[in-house]
Design brief:
The structure holds 2 protein chains of 2 kinds.
Chain A: H1 4-35, H2 40-45, H3 51-61, H4 67-79, H5 93-128, H6 133-147, H7 150-164, H8 189-196, H9 199-236, H10 239-246, H11 251-281, H12 283-288, H13 294-303, H14 307-335, H15 339-342
Chain B: E1 2-13, E2 16-28, E3 33-37, H1 44-52, E4 59-68, E5 71-72, H2 78-84, E6 89-92, H3 106-116, H4 125-135, H5 141-144, H6 154-166, E7 172-176, H7 184-200, E8 204-209, H8 212-218, E9 221-226, E10 229-234, H9 236-241, H10 246-254, E11 283-296, E12 299-312, E13 316-320, H11 327-334, E14 342-347, E15 350-351, E16 369-372, H12 386-396, H13 402-416, H14 432-444, E17 450-454, H15 462-479, E18 482-487, H16 490-496, E19 499-504, E20 507-513, H17 514-519, H18 524-532, H19 543-561
Parallel strand pairs in B: 3-8, 3-9, 6-7, 7-8, 13-18, 13-19, 16-17, 17-18
Antiparallel strand pairs in B: 1-2, 1-4, 4-5, 9-10, 11-12, 11-14, 14-15, 19-20
The chains are: A mainly alpha, B alpha/beta.
């Protein structure tokens, strides 16, 4: 109780700090799309439009008004959840993103969970037995994970498990056509199917997910394993580990309650970084596995100059990073009691 | 109770096998406090880690026997060792803050040990942990139970470490430099506590320390170690009065004590006569109503609350106080690394407090005021050789280049006694004493008038400290320097300084001529500081001779000060 009030204040401070960041993100996503070359009015008016109809479109879209007025309109639309119309799909951008974001998140989160449950024990084992085969295995996996590009690993996995072994389903999206997609609750097929109690569909979705998630996991586990190993080595050589050993504490207590909890901080930092770049970098994986995520959506939109879609994508990703950083910082305060006092 | 025979410990390193301990034998009787004294690298800590079998990776017992109450510590299974550690033999360490898990409540850390040795159940663990905290005289143990180490003072953290060590009533306590890094009054409190607990519980103990004075005060018997060997053992008074081995004699000589001059710290054969320094009464630095207030997280922190003092030309003024008294803040303001909140600092008649610290590096007076830092290792750039470290101020402020620069660097190296071949070494290739010399050479490179010495010998072994202190005395005589000597070690201040200022909580509580303040303190705080300093046993010098030296010393100081 004594320590909770400054920590609570630190948490609230951190939440308050997110507000200007969100405002900044909105301003930048607005200005960025305005600064891109090309005239949206021309695209929206269509191929056969003449000067007059382009001008008409411009007025209809409000693009003839000064920037501040446009910004007010944009923010007004945003507050109503309106991100504009996508040119290529013809649907509202908000709908498109709502359909595709869960697909990307499901893939990334699954990959990350896979990566963590392999990389962290691997790193811990490598740190406790430096120079042994576990340590060398860790080094090999890390090097391979970093140096193999995801599209290559993806294609290799498809070749082995789909083409040669035939145990994986065809890499065509989130669910084989023989299944019906589950009712939309969270947008995560695994969760939605489980909620419906439809285990058939659940297995189908899981089968589709395994290969792309493994591809992404191979890529993301490298930095996590490396950081876990380094952080554990640092923690294990600390003075307080010597104290714990001299007090006769058992190996597992020394390792987990003393060393591992102290090593967690840098690992969590790395995890946050890995998560943010995995969300952006999984576009290649999405392409290889025909995964209907927002990465491939954004690339397609960019290619055809679909500005509303790009703008929506930038905004959603930025907000996601803000939330992610917030979560990581809150995790810090949960792990390290010193944080609340260091925050100003 | 504990018997060690021909114990040898080796470390496998990348550069081959290192013999850390080379066959030591000793015994600890029931109820005895044994002191192991030696300088860094003597193998005193490694010996104790080997007994506990908690050597770092690569370390192993190569030969010898270690028996504790009939148990063979060298061959016991790891399972049995875990039961022995903490329950039969336990340890307390130096740097108590780092010795505790930083993110675990101290109460839980005590409970961990109780659980491990089945001394507590889930229901009574909390009560037993609080009882263990009360046993080491922690007030408000109930509330401290929930504290994290960073919320407690260094002395309090050491009490927690003691509580962890003593929670399961071990019969042998090994204390490895338990008071290094603690303030002198805290040191006394912790040592008194440990001694009382040991006596109360009829335990045995091994006190490992580099401080011969401390060991002599608290131990029944001493062992002097050097390079992994025991060079002498015996009764503390006897070792102090008639050291048999040349190394113990050197250590005894180098231990600062009342009645010794700075030259007495050196081995007899290299003692040169002490230079006569006559300080003028012309003020060089005048501090008036200096105030420094920080904006802290929970309100303003008044580090310095209006102090005034003067350093005359050629004078050495000692600034004494415990951590948090404002002595470091004061020295940083004087060396112009920090701005004062208010007050004046006159240097050669000009108020340098007016020049912001930010721009002082370009001020022509920058070269006149220099500083020697506490930790010689941390204050040198690890990627610069000694030569580059000394060249830097010459290049930047002295605008020296080429041959003139090279000549000056070698001249400085000669001045501080740094052998020329060492100039091209990096800090990690130099010993502590050599690094201290580099730090001093760098500070005097530009012929400053005023040198601030911030505990320049705190991190050094006593024999090296003796040499460095003598070097500082010689430099002061040779270059006509004025010193502000910041320290918590009263014995060292007594040796070096003409005038002493005692600070507490940002205020000067007492000041005066060094030998007056030291021999006849007026303020209760000064008295407690002097009482807390370890008192080595008297030397074998006949009493009257000792008094004669003291009197001689006093007149010397009088001459200096006037």
């Amino acid at each position: 109780m004594l320590a909770s009030s400054p920590r609570l204040r630190a948490v609230l401070m951190r939440l308050a700090q997110a507000i200007p960041v969100v405002i900044g993100v909105v301003v930048i996503s607005f200005l960025l799309t305005r600064a891109l070359p090309g005239d949206p009015a021309v695209y929206f008016a269509g191929v056969a439009a003449d000067e007059a109809s382009i001008e008409q479109t411009r007025v209809a879209m409000g693009l003839d008004k000064p920037l501040p007025v446009q910004f007010v309109h944009y923010v007004g639309d945003l507050l109503q959840g309106d991100l504009g119309q996508s040119l290529s799909s013809g649907r509202p951008v908000a709908t498109d993103l709502a359909n595709r974001l869960p697909a990307s998140l499901e893939l990334t989160l699954t990959a990350l969970i896979l990566a963590v449950i392999t990389a962290v024990p691997l790193g811990v084992l490598a740190a406790t037995r430096p120079g042994t085969w576990v340590d060398h295995l860790c080094r090999v996996v890390v090097t391979a994970g970093v140096s193999l590009p995801t599209f290559f690993t993806g294609i290799l996995l498809i070749y082995i498990f789909y083409y040669l072994a035939g145990i994986a389903p065809s890499p065509l999206g989130r669910l084989d056509f023989i299944y019906l997609s589950p009712d939309h609750v969270t947008g995560f097929y695994l969760i939605d199917a489980a909620l419906m109690g439809d285990w058939e569909t659940w297995r189908g979705a899981a089968k589709q997910l395994v290969l792309p998630a493994a591809t992404l996991a191979l890529f993301t586990l490298a930095p996590i394993a490396r950081m876990t190993r380094a952080a554990m080595l640092t923690a294990l050589s600390s003075d307080f580990i010597r104290t714990a050993r001299a007090a006769g504490l058992s190996k597992s207590v020394v390792l987990y309650r003393y060393a591992f909890r102290n090593a967690l901080l840098p690992v969590v930092t790395t995890l946050g970084m890995v998560f943010s770049f995995a969300l952006g970098a999984n576009v290649l994986v999405e392409k290889v596995f025909a995964w209907p995520g927002i990465g491939s959506y954004a690339v397609e939109a960019l290619v055809v100059s679909d500005y509303a879609a790009v703008q929506g994508f930038v905004l959603v990703m930025a907000l996601l990073f803000v939330v992610l950083n917030l979560v990581i910082d809150l995790l810090y305060t949960a792990i390290d009691p010193r944080i609340g006092f260091e925050a100003r | 109770m504990l018997s060690v025979k021909d114990l040898s410990v080796i470390f496998q390193t990348r550069r081959g096998v290192v013999d850390a301990v080379r066959g030591v034998s000793f015994e600890v009787a029931k109820g005895e406090i044994l002191g192991i004294v030696g300088e860094s690298g003597s193998g005193k800590s490694v010996t104790s880690y080997a007994l506990m079998r908690i050597l770092d990776a690569g370390g192993m017992i190569k030969a010898g026997e270690a028996t504790y109450s009939g148990i063979d510590l060298r061959r016991a299974a790891e399972r049995d060792m875990r039961d022995i550690r903490g329950r039969e033999i336990s340890m307390i360490f130096q740097n108590p803050r780092a010795a505790l898990n930083p993110i675990r409540k101290v109460g839980h850390q005590i409970e961990d040990v109780l659980h491990q040795h089945a001394r507590a159940t889930r229901q009574d663990a909390r009560a037993k942990a609080i009882a263990a905290m009360e046993a080491v005289k922690i007030k408000d143990a109930e509330q401290r139970y929930n504290a994290y180490p960073f919320e407690l003072s260094g002395g309090m953290c050491q009490r927690i470490v003691c509580a962890i060590a003593l929670a399961c009533d071990p019969r042998l306590l090994i204390a490895d430099e338990p008071t290094t890094g603690l303030d002198i009054t805290t040191q006394k409190a912790v040592m008194d506590l440990v001694r009382d607990l040991i006596r109360e519980r009829a335990m045995s103990s091994i006190l490992i320390t580099h401080d011969l004075g401390l060991a002599a005060q608290y131990c029944d018997r001493l062992i002097v170690m050097k390079d992994g060997l025991i060079v002498e053992q015996g009764d503390p008074v006897q070792i102090f009065s008639r050291p048999q081995h040349p190394y113990s004699r050197k250590l005894v000589d180098a231990t600062p004590r009342a009645g010794a001059t700075v030259r007495d710290l050196l081995p007899a054969d290299i003692r040169a006569p002490e230079p006569q320094i006559v300080a003028s009464d012309k003020p060089l630095v005048e501090v008036r109503d200096l105030v420094k207030t920080y904006a802290g997280k929970s309100g303003a922190v008044h580090a310095v609350k209006g102090i005034s003092f003067t350093v005359n030309q050629g004078q050495c003024v000692g600034l004494v106080g415990e951590s948090g008294c404002g002595k470091s803040t004061t020295s940083e303001i004087l060396v112009r690394l920090m701005d004062a909140t208010s007050g004046e600092v006159f240097f050669d008649g000009e108020d340098i407090a007016q020049t912001p610290a930010r721009g002082f590096a370009r001020d022509p007076r920058r070269a006149d005021i220099q500083m020697v830092f506490q930790d010689a290792t941390d204050s040198l750039n690890p990627r610069h050789t000694a030569r580059q470290a000394i060249a830097e101020p010459l290049r930047r402020l002295g605008r020296m280049r080429g041959a003139a620069l090279g000549t000056r660097i070698e001249e400085l190296a000669g001045l501080v006694g740094l052998p020329l071949p060492l100039l091209d070494r990096f800090p990690h290739q130099l010993s502590g004493g050599q690094k201290a010399r580099v730090g001093i050479a760098r500070a005097v490179a530009l012929d400053p008038k005023f040198l601030i010495l911030d505990e320049p010998t705190a991190a050094l072994d006593v024999s090296i400290q003796a040499v460095v202190l003598n070097l500082l005395v010689d430099l002061r005589a040779k270059l006509g320097l004025s010193y502000l000597f910041v320290s918590h070690d009263l014995h060292v201040v007594r040796l070096l300084c003409d005038y002493v200022i005692v600070m507490k909580d940002g205020l000067i509580v007492e000041e005066g001529l060094a030998h007056h303040v030291m021999s006849d303190p007026q303020n209760p705080y000064t008295k407690s500081l002097i009482a807390a300093a370890p008192k080595p046993p008297e030397r074998a010098t006949p009493k009257d001779q000792l008094e004669a030296i003291d009197a001689q010393h006093a007149t010397l100081h009088d001459k200096r000060a006037s």
